[in-house]
């Protein structure tokens, strides 16, 4: 396989893309266009890049790399309580790329997008020094379901989905974006604030607290640890892609009773007034900084 | 200036971003969200990347580089007859970046976005081997105004805006996206097909013809040449970012009479049936392949 030019390569990479009926203009045009939205729908937007030697290694599974590129964006839609609808993929292509590897990456993207009812509708290709994918997403929310990092109030309970820590052992390539959980949570108006844990609870929780102008208390013993990890890992490894959200104390018991998913739900602490100090129960909060390269 | 971490850097880069009232969630959240659209509005999406040593050199003006990153995307919205509303910027950041250079790039992006009434609403930052910007755009069209490469019919006249060729001499960093011209054209339903010239007429016109399943004839003497360029340059240099569009023969005279812009309008040929061969009037059509790096 030796694609002779850009158009040929794009054709090979996107051959399996399906274009659902809500796609009015898709592949092969200057822009993609979608069917009109319902009157109350808020357009929701996200972009995110996956770079080799930072977010993945070329020795890892290309299907999992493609999965991760898409799933990271879907996780951000879950964080916002939004339903993703369509994705675009910009591809940075180094000289020494393998078409077979790329085709497998794109197959991984397509499989994950399709599993969540999301259409891949366009993109762009450019030469670059290293392999990267920049995935841009479009989705929908309503004013009532849209969530953000703002809105946590003193007294709210603090929850996470799933387990934390251990992403480095390959979990960061295989995680499941918490879209059904997020849609359920916002349908019943549980979260007062929500985000996804991409840089680690130790880095992301302070961001939520800052945006909401509150402080927090976490309880080390209540952290849901991934197998073979410590509380320090759970707080600082990063790339958990779990939901972190706050729920009013009044609604907490109902949430825990009604939670319909197999995905674990853990109350890990509570929100307190910003006049108090945040308390991490002895844990040092460092988190993961994406500006530092992977140490291999 | 030595931003100590990702959040600090983002704060510095986006300090001047304004968030118009249609932005419901902007900077500092997992996703951006916008106000609901009118009932007939089609969401229009685009992503595009600008990579150093491919689309720009770090020795060039950072404000112009920022301009180009945004203007390329706006040009694609013009191609689709759409109105851009909001942009996201993903940034690939090498170890040896200069914060002052980056701040100037972002100032260039902001200035151009603002000049066209478009809001910068979010983004992402990642470590990478070289500097790149991936700009994703969201805009609006209606079913009546949305344009694509499909729709050119035999007998249609072929037009371009502005002049062609000579982009290498710096024009590729300073071009003006043809949004007002595009909005005027689609309001009066002139184009049967439209695209923007990013890879050169010699490469882009065959793409339009292929999408519309037609052939074309161009007339060398009618090509609007940029100063100090030849017809060969006009066809093959690429990065003109002018509009290429087709108009029914019946409407051509009216278009030329009513054209209200100082921007030059040139009829450069016509569409013929796909049963005929395309005729480039002796010119060799090569165009610009973005997968080849800049030769400096």
Walk me through what this model shows:
Two copies of one chain form a homodimer. The first copy, chain A, has seven helices and eleven strands. By secondary structure, chain A is α+β, with helices and mostly antiparallel strands. Chain A has two domains: 6-141, PurM-like, N-terminal domain (60s Ribosomal Protein L30, Chain: A); 157-273, Phosphoribosyl-aminoimidazole Synthetase, Chain A, domain 2, CATH 3.90.650.10. Chain A has a five-stranded antiparallel β-sheet, sandwiched between helices. In chain A, α1 packs across α3 (99-115) and α2 (62-79) packs parallel to α3 (99-115). The two termini of chain A are 31 Å apart. Chains A and B meet through α1, β2, β3, α2 and β4 of A and α1, β2, β3, α2 and β4 of B.
Entry summary:
The structure is a homodimer of 296-residue chains. Chain A is α+β, with helices and mostly antiparallel strands and 296 residues long.
How do the strands and helices of this protein lay out in sequence?
2 copies of one chain form a homodimer.
Chain A: H1 6-14, E1 23-25, E2 32-34, E3 42-51, H2 62-79, E4 83-93, H3 99-115, E5 119-127, E6 132-141, E7 157-161, H4 179-187, E8 191-196, H5 201-212, E9 214-218, H6 231-236, E10 243-247, H7 249-258, E11 265-273
Parallel strand pairs in A: 4-5
Antiparallel strand pairs in A: 1-2, 3-6, 4-6, 7-10, 7-11, 8-10, 9-11
